[in-house]
Amino acid sequence: MNIFDIVLIQPFLNLLVIIYHWLTLAHIPYALGFSIILLTVFVRLLLFPFMQQSLRQQKKMQEIGPKLTKLKEKYKADMKAQQAAQMELFKQEGVNPASGCFLLLLQFPILIGLYQVLYKVVSVHTAHDINKYIYSDAFKLNSMWDIHFFGLSMASKPQELLAHVGYGIVLVSILTGGLQLIQSKMMAPTAADKAKLPTKSEPDFATSLQTQMLFLLPLMVGFFAFTLPFGLSLYWNTLTIFGIIQQYLVSGWGGLVDWLPFLAKKQVSRFK
Q: Of 7, 85, 143, 153, which is least surrounded by CB within 10 A?
């Protein structure tokens, strides 16, 4: 067993099994599926302070975007002066771009570890494959758990379920991609924010990439949801819904108001 398994995968798997036993004792149907959802929520709650701070830094960076653009234009012939002016602006506005990136990167190993656990959970075939990772004999499985969630096998891919349940299963992938699109749009600046920026003769690389990723990422996520085990969609959708809620608490509906103007009244957050 490697260090990644010991530090991340094994603890998460043990926690998942404990949650599963609790739900089973409470006679909750589809205990494994709900265990995946609850474990995902628990991990996101642990990461909440880090993600909250990262989102706040991103929001501040969007707010000072016009000022940064003006500095780039003012000192475009002197990169050293431009960097010094930017650092002074960051200091005045209380912005630390490096901190926001670090907090975001800090979460990746944890979320990847959780993903690996859930992939393992829906892919194994015997209780022994799970029990060898469990710390205490008291929590080991006596028999293999039921991997079905509302009648659907979490080990099967939606594309494999197509012949059995019909085209309705495609809605899972559409929902997964749709939720990702909502979160991505919320993170984007509004049209009003973009209007504050100086007009450019042509879009720069960063702007073009951001526009492409707004639609490309949800399409990729929706495709993966269609080609990977159904159980992973439970994890990803729970993760995304939690992310949407957290994004709203930090910066309101963000760029989503450009598509749904009636949300503009709810832009102010009391958690800023």
A: 143
